Amino acid sequence: MSPAPPFRPAGGPDQPAPFVRVSLLGPVRAWDGEGGEIAIPGRKPRALLGILLMARGRPVSRARLAALLWERSAEAEARGSLRQAVLELTRAFGAVPLLRRDGESLRADPACCVVDALTLPAGGAPPDGMPALMDGLEGIGEGFDDWLQAERDAFLADLRARQEARLEALAEDPARSEEAIQAARGLVALDPSHEPGWRALMLLLASAGNRAQALAEYERCEAALRRALDLEPSAETQQLAARLRAPSRAALLPPAPPPPSEDGRLRVGVIPARLSAGQAHHPLTAAYAHDVALELVRYRHFDVLHPSALEAGGVPSSEAFRGLGLDYIVTTAIRREAEGSSLVLSLLEVSGPARPIWSARAPLGGTADELDSEALGRLVARLEPVILHTEGTRPVPKRVTDASAIVLRAIPLMFSMEAPRFFRAGEMLADAVTREPENAMAAAWAAQWHVFQIGQSWAPDPAAALEEAERLAVLAMSLDPESAEAAAIYGHVASFLHKDFDSAAYYLGRSLELNPHQASSWALSAATQTYSGSPKEALRQLERYRSLAPCHPHDRILSQVFTTAYAVGGDFEMALSFGRRAVRAAPGFVNGYKPVLSALGHLGLAREARPLIEALLRLEPRFNVAEFVSTYPFRRPEDREAYAEGLLRAGAPKG
To answer: What DSSP character marks residue 258?
Structure first.
């Protein structure tokens, strides 16, 4: 491989010269100031370098890095592996002080390097054939894969937005039409499903007198949309093509855009996937689409348009979807494979240029003419968190005044268990409840926020917080008696805060009757089973939770119930295995530490428990065993005593 050419800093005399150049677009590679390639050994050191560089100079905690790259290792082993990876990178970069240690954090010094993914010209054209960010590092672990996909999505979204802005600016200047054409080509190369980019390219070519090429681009647009989304071009794009075929130049004037939807709630439509010409649907495809719509209604987070409402409009298109105010489309398909048939659900975002978000499949059991409700339920259970996570974490919200939209953005902040973000979530949820007092979703999640606030020992007045959690949970159930989520949150309030296990079991059971595929309800029910002294039943319910949502966005908190169930059941080795992962994944969640410490104490590993105790006391300085076990919701005295004994053996303060 030929060396990269030498580079020079672009800044002035006061700007420190960069020492190395790093490429994150494609495989992770680095070059010194003379263009010689720097050998970076191993996938995980390259992944570590990528994580630190994408943090743009901000420190990243060692616990976070260990959890991302060595999630299956014990904490001490993961820390050792991290130290070794840092040593290898330090040796590779030699005299260049790229990595900096900030106490318990690491960072990459941006003054020491130029990174291609971070220094693309503002509004500039993307490189030809844009490679994937940090290509070839997939499969290191679930946590890292999730981080990598989120970084890739954010990178492409930012690049797409800059390219859109560049195209818009160039298109307004007739003297720069050639640059505008190249910008439009760059935009559709970056996102082949970007219909406004295709339309801009067609108009620019036609305005330059090249209608034949403009119509050729329409054909490319058709092929790209079929390949990426299995959709026809929107009515607006088809109309533009028709005007291009007309002789009159006035025909090129665009029609007035359709009015935006005024409905604040998310809207999700369900349709059978379209097939290529000559192919026939499996007889049950439409039936599955109908049942997916009915299952989605149970989740209460969005309005669902039944397939019949969409089929009435003829051939679906992204423009037709936007005309109905849809944010997402779910497609159903049955794929025949060598080992049998599978049900496939795919999720497309259609509020802007249509783009795929998620797809999953489940093998179908039974006979060819029977619906497999279990396969369908498992897929829908995975689909609902994807929609909520996408809405809650998008860089720029589509709606900022609607209460439901505010709740969706508050939920990830709440589950971060980082105090500033957590209290921002509390402000947002209080605002949502004030804006729409009749919104059950806002009331239910505001109640859950108070539960977490008490559990984290962050409530200035725990009694008042408990009363408010109770009020909001009851309000949520009264506003929407059919909400499985509201019933589950009320059941959790009853067990965790009131130690009323019978009421908790009733409302959690009602939640699971209302929606047996709501994964979070199974996790909350398992927590109550653990508190009640039934750890075996708790683990059975947790396996159901895991089967429904193997990648739940809140798993870093919900999976802590595994640790407690194993600890209460006396399987301390398993408690330790799950607990170490849980603590690394959510280092700010105080109740994640306690079952791990109890397990360590029972296993006689007080020395290994010491750093966890120190971390817990930094988060909860007043923690002591006596006060904790007197307030934690144990139903059976023997569970309380065994838990306390483990904590004391681990070296936790007695109180």
So the answer is: P
CA separation, residue 651 to residues 176, 347, 451 (Å): 72, 50, 28
Buried b (16+ CB within 10 A) or exposed e, 518-550: bbbbbbbbbbbbbbbbbbebbbebbebbbebbe
- Tallying the residues shown for the chain, one arrives at 655
Pairing of strands 267-272, 303-305: parallel
Integer Cα distance of 222 and 476 in angstroms: 47
What DSSP line would sit under 557-624, residue for residue?
HHTHHHHHHHHHTT-HHHHHHHHHHHHHH-TT-GGGHHHHHHHHHHTT-HHHHHHHHHHHHHH-TT--
Token code pair at residue 434: 């004030």
E strands in 233-301: 267-272
Six token digits for residue 41: 């050994």
Question: 3-state DSSP call for residue 651?
Answer: coil
The angle formed by the CA atoms of residues 596, 599 and 605, to the nearest 5 degrees, is: 100
The full DSSP string for 327-374 is: SEEEEEEEEEETTEEEEEEEEEE-SSS-EEEEEEEEE--S-TTS--HH
Contact (CB, 8 A) for 487 and 514: yes
Report residue 471 as tokens.
């009020």
The whole-number pLDDT of residue 76 equals 85
Contact 422, 413 (CB under 8 A): yes
List the Cα angle 504/508/512 in 5-degree steps.
170
- Cα 570 from Cα 581, distance rounded (Å): 19
DSSP output for 467-492? HHHHHHHHHHHHH-TT-HHHHHHHHH
List beta partners, residue 360. 345
For tokens 């969706």, what's the residue? 408
Please provide residue 334's backbone torsions phi and psi, each rounded to the nearest 5 degrees: -115, 120
- Output the pTM of the full model: 0.61
* Burial group, residue 462, by CB count within 10 angstroms (0-12, 13-18, 19+): middle
Give the chain's largest Cα–Cα span: 88
- What digits encode the pLDDT tens for the residues 132-159? 889 989 889 888 888 888 888 778 777 8
Look at residue 270 and give its three-state secondary structure.
Answer: strand
In this predicted structure, the answer to whether residue 297 has a pLDDT above a threshold of 80 is yes
Instruction: Judge whether residue 652 has pLDDT over 60.
Output: yes
Secondary structure letter of residue 496 according to DSSP:
I
Task: Take residue 498 and report the two structure tokens written for it.
Answer: 């009131």
Q: Which has the higher per-residue pLDDT, 14 or 578? A: 578
Report the C-alpha gap between 131 and 419 in whole angstroms: 37
Q: What is the pLDDT of residues 156-199, one digit of tens each?
A: 777 877 788 888 888 777 788 888 888 888 888 878 888 888 88
| DSSP codes of every residue in 476-537 | HHHH-TT-HHHHHHHHHIIIIIT--HHHHHHHHHHHHHH-TT-HHHHHHHHHHHHHTT-HHH
Element holding 424 (H helix, E strand) = helix 419-435
pLDDT for position 397: 59
Q: What is the pLDDT of residue 318?
A: 57
Any residues with CB less than 8 A from the CB of 582 and at least 6 apart, and which? 556, 559, 560, 562, 563, 589, 592, 596
Mean pLDDT of all residues belonging to the chain: 84
pLDDT in tens, 382-412: 998 888 888 887 765 565 567 888 898 899 9
Can you tell me whether residue 384 is helix, strand or coil? helix
Q: What single-letter DSSP state applies at residue 118? A: G
Question: Are β-strands 303-305 and 340-349 bridged in parallel, bridged antiparallel, or unpaired?
Answer: unpaired
As given in the structure block, the two tokens for residue 242 are: 């028709």
